[in-house]
Amino acid sequence: MRRTGVRGPVDVFSGLLLAAIAVAAMIFLRDLEVGTARQMGPGYFPIAISLLLLAIGVFLIGRGLVFQGAAVDRLQFKPVLFVSLSLLAFALLIDRAGLVVTIVAQVAIAMLGSPERAYLQSLAFAVALAALSSVVFVRLLGVPVEIFP
Questions:
Q1: 139 three-state secondary structure
Q2: Which tens digit of pLDDT belongs to each residue from 70-127?
Q3: Is the distance from CB of 107 to CB of 127 less than 8 angstroms?
Q4: If you ran DSSP here, which 8-state letter would residue 137 be given?
């Protein structure tokens, strides 16, 4: 007799999380005009990203039901805490400290949640991420945010 059920719990739970985020986003975005591919409305891109996220979630759920995968480990609170604090730091610093300082601070705070202390790698990543974000968001997309304080 063939055993059925969840074979890859990490994939199933990851897929459920992505699908839930996508559905929540689509609910919040339901009042925005979508438009067409030629005349995109303000909701077109966010809805498209939400649908892509939903498709990835459904794929992961299916993969977890069919293929053997890793078991779910115990939830680690330290990484969740420090990543959450890094997001809070971004929200509090972006208007005051500029994009570069904010991103470097965010990466430094998030790094504290890792058991590995790769300070030099984290610093290099933070500088590269800040530089890339400055070029893409401020220069190319014209997001109205200061690069430096």
A1: helix
A2: 888 888 899 999 999 999 999 999 999 999 999 999 999 999 999 887 889 999 999 9
A3: no
A4: I
Tokens of 54: 């939903």
Hey, what amino acid is at 124? A
How many residues appear in the chain?
A: 149
Contact 102, 134 (CB under 8 A): no
**Phi, psi dihedrals of residue 16, rounded to the nearest 5°:** -65, -40
d(CA 123, CA 58): 36
Q: Quick one: pLDDT band at residue 1, thresholds 50, 70, 90? A: very low
| Claim: this prediction has a pTM higher than 0.70 | no
Asked whether 79 and 126 are in contact (CB, 8 A), the reply is: no
Helix ranges restricted to H, 5-118: 9-28, 44-66, 77-111
